[in-house]
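Exam prep: given the inputs below (a chain plus adenosine-5'-diphosphate-glucose), describe the expected output before reading on.
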Amino acid sequence: MKNGAEHWYRLARNPALALLLDYDGTLVPTANTPEEARPSPEVLALLTELANAPGVTCAIVSGRQREALDEMLGSVAGLRLVAEHGLWRRGATSWFSTASVDMGALDELQTLLIPVVDAHPGSRIERKTGAICVHYRGVRRSRKEAFVVRVTALLEEWLRTHPEYELLDVIEAVETRPRGVNKGGAVAWIRERAEPDVRCIMVGNDVTDEDMFAAVGTGDDGILVGPGYRRQTAARWHLEDPAALHTFLRWILAVRIDETVQDESGLPSPMALASLPRQPCIEPAPEGRGPSLLAISNRLPHLRDPSCPAPNRKQNVGGLVSALAPVIAERDGLWLGWSGNTIPGDQASAVSRDREASPPLAWIDLPAVWHEQYYNGFCNRALWPLFHSFPGRIRFSDSEWNAYAMANEAFAEAACSLVRPDAAIWVHDYHVLLVASALRRRGHTGPIGLFLHIPFPGADLFEMIPWADGLLDALLEFDLLGFHTPGYVANFRSCVARMTPAQVSDDGVEHRGRTVRVAAFPLGIIPESFQEPADPSTAEEIAALFQSIGSTQLVLGVDRLDYTKGIPERLLAFERMLQLFPSWKGRVSFVQVSVPSREDVPEYAEQRQLIETAVGRINGEHGEAHWVPVRYLYRSYGRSHLAQLYRAARVGYITPLRDGMNLVAKEFVAAQAPEDPGVLLLSRFAGAAVELREALLTNPYHTEGMARDLDRALRMEAPERKARHAALLATVSRTTALTWAADFVAALEAVRSAA
Ligand code: ADQ
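Solution:
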């Protein structure tokens, strides 16, 4: 008998046997449309035989809706059906649901998704009773990635206010469904209904089938169908395609009916299966060398990773990622962050890892309750407004601070399992300020640096934090603290001087016998990436926008939608400009592009409302039949799109009330045509204003002043525009994202040498 055959004979002949079969891509081949993926009469006959064979329980466990399963398979007597990944189960006769569903919430989500899907031919929304599945198989390849990023971002924002739902990565689709409802539950259900000592065989092809594979008990087994074996899977066996599965199922029937069947070659046999090497997602702590540089941030620079069921699909391609990725790669490093997934309970998950990603990634899932309290809570309702000088928006809560501390401990715990104690660690941003102290408590001795991407406030503000002393103390456990500007460095030093016994020296802080180096490392962009010729695939969409603004001068704002960006103030100043200088009426168009952000935090939803109301009012009061003064686009654009928009703008209207750096300002400069550049009208409260002195600096708190500055920018003659732009471009080209990353890592490594 060949390898594995004995195992399958034993399993197939077990007195009680349950077969749990996924439908699409497993029992029937995947088709272009769901309607085309139908069972043949032979398959129906096979299922009927299986469902009625003595001792056999046969179930179809699918993501499809009840109606579809009823329609295609309802005629098979005795067949159990599980729809919507386990939300619905059909027993002997009728369907019942396993979770309650908030239809209103799903309606609301559907409304949010419709414009995105409408803008992407080839995508479609499948509304299920308890879930919404967005399919993108038909989206043009060049637009698919951007579509996935956009949809995932929207879904993730929505999930923050709907923690009872979760995201599911399906082949060529993404689904939002009630948390905890998955195909694994169906295994338990079938087991309860089958005879005692039942053995289960789970067969599937999709990531959603992993929940079934993970539910195997002693004596059960899982089979993966199709090319999914290239991903990490808990299944131990493999079948080529649905046809091979049919052969295998016939073999099971034959073996059960006829005890003497022995011919593995002639009969369908388990020898069609190839044993898969196990590739666990979760890896043990490193032995030997391990990565020498670990980056830690809340969000990963995540590229869609179909190879593992766990991580999220958020893609975050920007200067930061482009800068860090080579630095990490050169040092054989790793990037650790939150997966984007939340889990029930009160413990972070074990760390998982993808060595093949570029850069290599590691991640943990966080409990949903921490995510709400740590991320939406302490990070975004306390630290974010406080560090941006919005004291009126701050909200402190003990439980949110505790969740923040626990999340930081979880990142530190994960980090220790990934790198040696002497590895260099580069931590990013305000979500993980306590990580160095948590690492030190675990015995990490290597250099640890922090780069803060947002401003550092003055001592009067910082002192408002109830846990200010502890936070400062934890910051002094880093070896290197990097900020965007010398002003933030000065603020940090003044906090230390006022609130701790540490000694502030020329380039750092002396504390507990150690020196903490504190310095400005202004982050830049990769200028060339905004200077490439327009991608032809993006041209039509932008052309339509340009056509709509006609020959008017373009004033452009581009931001994440955030109250720190000063968008309502910008709108008011634009309107004031039209009142003060009415000759601009009909000759200028303001296009504001806002990427959705943190919509579940009430202030962000309010901000959106405020902006939309202001846009409607301005257009209503000032617009004319042939001229719409303001166009508001609530969406994200790819880099090539953005570059075209920047290049077409006469004024880059970038006026945050406070901003750590503001990379949009630098991107705008990089994208200009040197022979006829636009003018950068920049808030003096953006960190970028420190370097970009030749921009026209403005005060966004002063509506009339900003209106006059906008008029001046629009009137600026070519020689002045060119001179300013040349100086700005020199600055943007000198300090780039790449020099920033290299400088920071060199400084971090210098700490090690000094030690
Ligand atoms: P952000 O607050 O996100 O970053 P910013 O620096 O301007 O602000 O970066 C935004 C990025 O998003 C830019 O690369 C821009 O191209 C992109 N973006 C903005 N609107 C977009 C749109 N509609 N479509 C597509 N892309 C869009 C935080 C801090 C900043 C700091 C950065 C980096 O708040 O102060 O500069 O980190 O440290």
